[in-house]
Amino acid sequence: MVQLERYVRRYDLDGLLSADLVASLRPFRRGPGELIIRSGDPVRDIVFFVEGRAKAYGTMNNGQSVLAAFYAPFDVFGEAELFSSRRYALSVEAITGSICLCLPVDALLKAAPRNYRLFMYLCGRLGSKLTDRFAAESINLRYPVESRLASYLLASTDDCGRLLGTDDLGELADFLGASYRQLARVVRRFRDDGILDKSRGRVRLIDRRKLAPLAGDSYIQTGTNVKPGSFSK
């Protein structure tokens, strides 16, 4: 059972939210590969990401998915849609076991006059995400496939080097905005260089240190361990 009070204290949420909104928070867990948010669903909750790792991606009209960003705590999902479309624009999927706190939008809007600190934080985070999104959208133009794959592997493997995302090169190529042939060529080179191993259809990262310099700053991981309540004091 998730202990709500633990995360309220860790991230100083009672300094960000009024008491009635803290009481409205609902914790939930997601396992690796499970969706935290689904693109197109109505925005019924603002979601605070408090533990784990996650990735956000968009789905194009042809059904292909394109990676947008990685996330680490502390972060928030749904703040952009709250002020615009009221439907989630991106899907967010847990890479590792993750914990989130849901705040119902109805409760948030009702308590808005008493929660200016929260809205200041949401607006500030929205501005940062727009900057990060611009950077992410330019990655496919600025970075070679090896950098995109390196960044994905660093963010999507566990401590034993096991890939927590898809092992299917076709799906991964679409996800990284590359062709299957381009990605397969990079995977072979990484395997020859002793960076990863691919056997029986499974990818395993062998040498993280060799991979890190190749990733650069592609696919910026957002989120901060700074307590959000401290931003508005």
**Cα end-to-end separation:** 31 Å
Which secondary-structure class do the elements indicate? alpha+beta
SSE ordering: HHEEEEEEHEEHHHHHHEEHE
Which CATH-level-2 architecture of the largest domain?
Sandwich
- Fraction of residues in helices? 25-40%
Q: How many domains would you count in the coordinates?
A: 2
Radius of gyration in whole Å, from Cα?
19 Å
Average pLDDT over all residues: 83
Taking the sheet with the most strands, its summary is: 5 strands, mixed
Number of helical segments with 4 or more residues: 10
Low-confidence stretches: none
Task: Output the strand order for the largest sheet.
Answer: 2-7-4-5-11
Strand element count: 11
In the CATH scheme, the class of the largest domain would be Mainly Beta
Annotated CATH homologous superfamily of the largest domain: Jelly Rolls
Q: Which overall shape is indicated by the principal axes computed on the Cα atoms?
A: elongated
CATH fold label of the largest domain: Jelly Rolls
Strand content: 15-25%
